[in-house]
Write a structure and sequence with these properties.
alpha+beta; 8 strands; 3-methyladenine DNA Glycosylase, Chain A; eight-stranded antiparallel beta sheet; about 30% strand; DNA-binding
Length: about 170
DNA sequence: ATTGGGATCGTCT
DNA sequence: GACGATCCCAATA
């Protein structure tokens, strides 16, 4: 079943944990989510922490929508917005294990290994870019599904690549 | 196995 | 005008 609005209204740290093991689906491409990071409103590492800008405005919108941004001049990263409108929090999808459409992902990536084991890599593998910024992930062809899979054990650690609030253990993986 | 540098450009100060 | 919620390759140990 497709994850719906209520799922994304739970506390953001809980959403980040519970997204692990769910399936990220974009058309026929599917991958098991294996790593996430939470970004909270009073968190200096969060793009929204210094107010709304054109880039981060989707984070201030309704839950269950995709926040896709472009960074380092060459990579896209994707989040799912959590919390009600005007509460700017989100969960970054950092890695997935390819399940379906692997051949297409390999084509998109131009290599056979390390297909989707990073936030920029999975966006390239799935063909996710700014065109998907702001779209509703509770319906349509870009969604997260629960197929009953549950991770055996979930680990946590520091978030990657940030300077501010780097001590928070808000990265989850299995 | 780990580390360091370069690529590259949209966004924010 | 500076720098990033990154990736890849090459060099090192």
């Amino acid at each position: 079943m497709i994850l719906k609005r209520e799922f994304y209204l739970q506390p953001t740290l809980k959403v980040a944990r519970e997204l692990l093991g769910k399936k990220l689906c974009y058309g026929d491409l599917e991958g098991r989510i294996t790593e996430t990071e939470a970004y909270l409103k009073d968190d200096r590492a969060c793009h929204a922490s210094r107010g709304m800008t054109e880039r981060n405005s989707v984070m201030f919108g309704p839950p269950g929508h995709a926040y896709v941004y472009f960074t380092y001049g060459m990579h896209h990263c994707m989040n799912v917005v959590t919390q009600p409108e005007s509460v700017a929090e989100a969960v970054l999808i950092r890695a997935v294990e390819p399940l379906n459409g692997v051949e297409e992902m390999i084509r998109n990536r131009g290599r056979e290994k390390n297909i989707a084991d990073g936030p920029g890599k999975l966006c390239q593998a799935f063909g996710i870019d700014k065109r998907l910024n702001g779209i509703d992930m509770t319906r349509g062809k870009f969604v997260v599904r629960d197929d009953g899979f549950r991770p055996k054990k979930i680990d946590k650690g520091r978030r990657i690549g940030i300077k501010l609030d780097a001590d928070k253990l808000w990265r989850f993986y299995f």
